[in-house]
Specification:
By secondary structure, the protein is mostly helical. The protein has a domain of 43 residues. Helix content is 88%, strand content 0%. The termini are far apart.
Length: 64
């Protein structure tokens, strides 16, 4: 139990004294970057899905 308590104390000390936390404006800027990247990736996946669907529909229609 003493090891667990020491681990918790050391973790708290590290988080409060050694970690460099971003400022509010940095956090907002990074959130915008993540949002834009997520939207671009989602759009890319949507386009790839639609393209593959259209290709498969064309293949199925010409095969029958």
């Amino acid at each position: 139990m003493a090891k667990v308590l020491k681990f918790i104390k050391d973790s708290y000390s590290e988080v409060t004294h050694k970690v460099t936390w971003p400022t509010w404006s940095q956090l907002q800027n990074h959130a915008v970057v993540v949002l834009v990247a997520s939207l671009i990736i989602a759009l890319l996946i949507f386009v790839m899905d639609k393209a593959s669907s259209n290709v498969l529909e064309w293949i199925y229609s010409t095969a029958s």
